[in-house]
Amino acid sequence: MIEHHIDIPTADGAMNTFVVHPEEGGAFPVVLFYMDALGKREELHDMARRLASVGYFVVLPNLYYRRTRDFWLRERKEPETTQMYEHMASLTSALMVRDTDAMLRYARTQPAADATRVGAVGYCMSGPFVMAAAVAFPECIKGIAAIHPAKMVTDQPDSPHLMAPGVKCESYFACAETDKWAPPELVQTLQDALQAAGTSHRIEWYPGVEHGFVFPRREGIYNQAAAERHWERLFSLFGRTLA
To answer: Rounded to 5, what percent of the chain is helix, strand, coil?
Structure first.
């Protein structure tokens, strides 16, 4: 595997990013990895490595780069928890579309990347961002996944469920049974919107787990069986859509 820690230039500064891909095999489809609220950290680097190991060029940026280059929540205590929520609140789908554009422009310059075949996966807070990316870049984003996504239905004009008609690629949503950020009634609203739009999608409930169940270092919440199912779904989705 080849790994790089790089800065991707954006309209708002240098976005520090982890990039990983196989050493040999030609130009690999690109997977954009959008972090959860806890920040870019080694736990996510390991997950990016796992994605790359099956044949992808994975790009994992620090989405908080406008405010900090190195934040990640080590313990749920103050003032770090307040900082996390402030960082999270600073992000919008419009900003993430700009950052996605920067990631795609970078990928187009890389011999190891095939930027005509792009997938995106977003965890927690980034569920809305992969929806926005799919709408903004339909010519290259072929499949998206949102894993225990948050705020997929809001009362704002950029609510992800309102984006459904613009999503032209296949989408997958992994929802935890216990998740205050995605209760069943809001997930049902999202599903109704996706069905009305006629876009290819799957919403899957993961019983007996909580928000954050895929992260191995989330003590007391990580569920290995459910996490492995999420990996199977990701590999299947990207295998179909990026082949």
So the answer is: 35, 30, 35
Residue 207: phi, psi to the nearest 5?
-70, 150
What crossing angle do the helices spanning 127-136 and 93-108 adopt, rounded to 10°?
Answer: 60
Does the bond joining 79 to the residue before it have cis omega, within 30 degrees of 0?
yes
**CATH number, domain with residue 30:** 3.40.50.1820
Helix (H) or strand (E) holding 114: strand 113-123
- Of 97, 123, 131, the C-alpha closest to 201 is 131
Which residue range is the domain that position 146 belongs to? 2-241
1: three-class secondary structure by DSSP: coil
**Residue 25 has what DSSP assignment?**
S
CA 150 to chain centre: 11
Domain count for the chain, please give it: 1
DSSP structural state of residue 149 = -
Enter the pTM of the model: 0.96
Confidence of residue 65 (pLDDT cuts 50, 70, 90): very high
Q: Which residue has the tokens 């196989």?
A: 22
Task: Identify the pLDDT of residue 24.
Answer: 87
Mean pLDDT of 156-178: 97
